[in-house]
Structures
1.
Amino acid sequence: MLLAFTDEGAGPVVVLLHGFPLSRTMWSAQIGELSRSFRVIAPDLRGHGESPAPDAVYTMEQMAEDVVELLDGLGVTEPVVVGGLSMGGYVALALALKHPGRIRGLILADTRAAADSPEAARQREETAGAVLRAGHAGVLVEAMLPKLFAASTIRERPAVVAPMRAAMEATSASGVAGALRGMAGRPDRREELKSIAAPTLVAVGDQDVVSPPDEAKAIAEALPNARLAVIPGAGHLAPYENPEAFNAAALEFLRSLS
Ligand code: MLT
């Protein structure tokens, strides 16, 4: 599948994979800052942003293959750093496990290694059905938006929240349903973490209620070569909510690889 993407800067490649149901627009502050020293490639994953949204279940493995296809299409054959937020992190893990030779480093932001509980998977299926019946992402947006940000961001920074609301609202019903069903079926990766040799930065907002700091800490501890950065004043969208702190941690990590 041909994905829409942004490709900025020159140097070692950093691929950034957005969360659900967002788009590459969530990385604008990282694209601006990191592209001064790196080549930043940020796709819209299938079903999101400007990429096609087929009626299908989007497994994390399939989305990882889309990213590999994009890199191949761009002639990027050297190992790259892949950063992913939440669903983007599930995809980054799938990519790292299937194609370890393509990975120079990982940034796992506000994400999880565990699978959905049966109840969470059932709820996703219910939401997928509701969104498909409505023909738009509305019900999901209202339920999910308050959980994405720190409470103070919701209260005091409406201009920060608005673009992510718009990105969510723009995601098609088929895109939402495809990703929800793919996430519901994703495997538990916790046992596999120890086989990931790539240096990894695990980053998490200190107020993330979707993938809380304790889970990030457990991921960092299970990986053979990881460091943890807790991003202050941020919820589930730490890179977007506090780009200064996230970019500082990311740049320090990226520079440590060269
Ligand atoms: C995301 O931000 O990508 C989602 O919260 C992931 C999920 O629903 O598991």
2.
Amino acid sequence: MANIERLRRFIQDMTRAVEKSGADEPAMLREGKKLLAGLIARDDWLPEEFALSHPDTYRQYLLYCDPLERFSVVSFVWGPGQTTPVHDHTVWGLVGVLRGAEKCEEFERAGENQPMRKTGEHRIEPGSIDAVSPALGDIHTVSNALADRPSISIHVYGANIGAVKRHVYVRETGEIKPFVSGYSNSVLPNLWDRSAEVRAG
Ligand code: FE
């Protein structure tokens, strides 16, 4: 059974962190990184229905959104060969790999009608964390680095990311298109059934 307490504690800690440091992006990213590293250090808490891949495209399952939309937590599940479009975020984001491995490629705009310029590429392994934001570099793709099984990463963003107006970029031409990512699920994990521990206590 999923150890949902781990996710509940993470969300409680993230809520305290945005209250304290939400207006200070570098501090927020420092604290968020530490907390996300703690969450992904163990792979025993993500309920199975939020870990399912889809044969056609990657899935993005909302695990939690702060009531004031100051942050959101999403599990991304990539099947073999699946990849995001080239996209930006417009808010800070943290990406930690829980299962498998992922390939990140960074891009920048090269000018009107110019192909996107690739500025880097790296692999994220389980336990390691990437940060994005308009201040750090905000345009990338993320793909499953494994050819034979799904990979899963946990993303934390400084907004309700499924409701943010952002952009995808046509790699070959640099064309910018409006993008709102949405979510694959309509029901969220139940963090709040603590009855077993209360009965036992
Ligand atoms: Fe991204």
3.
Amino acid sequence: MSEQPLPVIGITTYSRNEAGEFYLPGPYIDAVQLAGGIPILLPPNQPAPDQLLAIVDGLIFSGGGDIDPALYGGEHHPTIYLVDAERDTFELALAKAAIDSHIPVLGICRGMQILSVASGAELITHVPDVYGETIHHRLDHPRRPIGHAVQVSPTSRLATMLGESEIAVVSWHHQAIKTVPDGWTVTAQAADGLIEALEYRQHPWLFAVQWHPELSPDDPVHQRLFQALVAAASRGRLERRDRAIASTRSAGSGL
Ligand code: MN
């Protein structure tokens, strides 16, 4: 038996599609496994999201379609796509519970937006309306990812984690953060000013990025995010195990 417990990383998924399948792009699973974690998928059709925190050591809020603007007081926009009420409801509840917990949390793309909306943020419903098109944050026809540069605040924990402050990212998002909730800090921006990373300082390990680190599997800078998540989750698992052993011993000795 290995001494170091492998941490379980829950990853949110898309809802059931027309073929009856739940869906998550494979690179999320690859990234967690490569970092030494055990990925488990958390589909949205679950009645008690907060109870999931008891079975995972870390969480990834994954990418996906747009969040319903009604959930953050936003206006509808004709370009809004893939709105999924079941997924929005589930992930917002899970995000609120995760933010209140000590479990390490990584938000990716839509995941960053969900965590922000759960904390009271508003979103930009259509990025080009606000930031123009000097930088493309996705390609539209057909929709696919595109690369752009991101400037990470050199003094941020994120820069320390990544080991660099000027990075190239894979970007594939339609919406973006409009208002930063209390207690959250912007730690990276694109050259057009768009918010590319946030962290929540009142949580021991909660980072969120607007880009897709899982789509850069060969870039060690991006893999460090998953390694840091798995390391934090592993420490938490070890601490909980040690506390459980200590309480069993003290119960057994009659103290
Ligand atoms: Mn971007």
4.
Amino acid sequence: MTANGSGPLLVWFRNDLRLSDNPALLAAIQSGEPVLPVYIFDDDPAASWQLGGAGRWWLHHSLAKLRDAIAERGTTIVLRRGSALRELHVLVREVGARGVYWNRCYEPAALARDTAIKDALRAEGLEARSFNANLLFEPWTVKNKAGKPFQVFTPFWRHCLGLAAPTPPDAAPAHIPGMMRPPSTDKLDDWKLLPVQPDWAAGLRAAWVPGEEGGQARLVQFLDEAIVDYKAMRDRPDLPGTSRLSPHLHFGEIGPRQIWRAVQARIAHNREPGIMAAAETFLRQLGWREFSYSLLYYFPHLPEKPLRSEFNSFSWREDAALLEAWQRGMTGFPIVDAGMRELWHTGWMHNRVRMIVASFLVKDLLLPWQVGARWFWDTLVDADLANNTAGWQWTAGCGADAAPYFRVFNPITQGKKFDPDGAYVRRWLPELAGLPDAFIHNPWQANLMTLNAANVVLGETYPWPIVDHAVARERALAAFSRVNKSGDWVEDR
Ligand code: FAD
């Protein structure tokens, strides 16, 4: 790279695939230099957390939308494939760039890569500037009184809420002053991010509209229709009670500051206690996202290793058949199977059901949480290293502020409580649709006449339970209590 006092500025898009509330893009435009938007697809097979199948599908559509939105504003996004360091180096030389601007990522590998790129650019006398677009409170701004990272959510979030409110988001630029002759770009289709033979994405297409407009529309719909009941409905997988913003947030098609502001605006004219409490509960979920990012930043080993080191010696089981039954939604526990099939068809699963299926894998089956996290990683459209890792470690009881080891979700009572009419199970397991409500979550307890009337033949049309939950629970308690006896957990309240 060569030192250069003037010249175009590269805006390197990553997980910030939007034009509004995009400080790197705005700063580049305000510099008065021509702007060259760039996206680099780095699918290095050696990387340990390469984008999964569902994520690749989403990325394709999100980039197509971003490309079109940038074209509408008068310029072109350059797509390149390969190592970010190498491709940026090539592009900077090709166009004689003055520097590169980007919005920060927080995953350990991304942080290491970005630091190396910043150093390399600056060593060449080029400008390298990064901005915050992805979090309300960046990890290094949130520490406890001892100057250490919080490891318990409630004090973490209380502390965040006492800090200065997030800055207002900027609108999308009307025009992006591009280069007269931008360099060549890859064709998005050539990256082959979409599944073919088989094309398994029909359910994803039906469920989602990737891209910035899709994210904004989802937010508006949620604020108009669902936030009022969020507190009461957020645990009900049978109802459209949550925002479903997670994939849009993961890919940065919408930013948390935009959500924060929109919620504030929503409650500005209606401050009745119900809606205030709902808004607070909803923003608290964004707080969990911030907490997860903070944990990953301070404890970069978390995607592979438990936060609580005594879990390193936990003796998980290995059983390919049980794992496959879980992955395919064939465990014989309807709420678990419905969740796993929702995941397979739509690339998403309701939070309550994520907790149930995760608990089932790590406690009923005693299979390692890392194996479950990998499956989620490949199948979720919102697969997110910080949130996924925190969710799995929370469920396994080995993470920060985790579920206590003796909490073993009962798939039958959870089903009855959160899917009371069995509507969710019936949607995803049509083979059980004819069962009466009393047996929809426990078909093996129905008598033969009831099963026959519903056309259910256990072992044929739907599996028998792969474990006896009561027995599995006792086994899990015994295994987990052995670990917890040696626990050295200290809360930082
Ligand atoms: P809403 O209830 O509308 O919440 C709004 C936003 O807050 C979400 O979009 C999300 O960004 C954030 N949020 C909500 N709950 C959590 C949470 N518990 N932890 C962190 N952030 C949260 N979330 C992901 O985004 N990606 C993952 O890969 C992921 N894996 C998970 C794995 C397990 C085992 C568990 C238990 C949870 C996981 N979550 C993950 C968290 C949560 O399930 C999803 O964020 C949520 O279901 C997304 O739906 P929503 O957008 O409708 O959420």
